[in-house]
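Sequence in, structure out.
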Amino acid sequence: MRIAKVLQHALVGAVGLSLYAAAHADNCSGRYSNVTISSETLEVAKAHSVTYFHARGSATSDNSIHNGVGMCGGYALVMADGKVRAVGVCARKNKDGDSWSDEWSIEPGAQRGVWKQSGGTGVFAGKTNSGWWQPLAADGKTETGTWGGNCN
């Protein structure tokens, strides 16, 4: 059951992550969904494990260029005290073939994760987009949520 909970908080989003100053109001937002393709859990010690996962999904937005499909991968670390930290990367492309990647994380106990664009081609080249993501519903295999941030 713990692994399902870990995957609920680790399926990413699509989207990726980095908290930014309060002075930066969100100027982009959207939704994401991901479906886990594979995962493997390694028990490091009793009550201490790491789960590696690979997911496919989409990111959509009505007010930005972030509309695409692709893959995410990462890990969720369950520490001996029961706290979970998840980290990953997503890479997606739009209908024109332009692509972007974002790195994301969510800290133990957090309701929201953070994302930061780490690369891109075409319309995504040279962008320094960043923001937050928040899971809305998950069942251990599939997740959907919202995202927002500062997109330039």
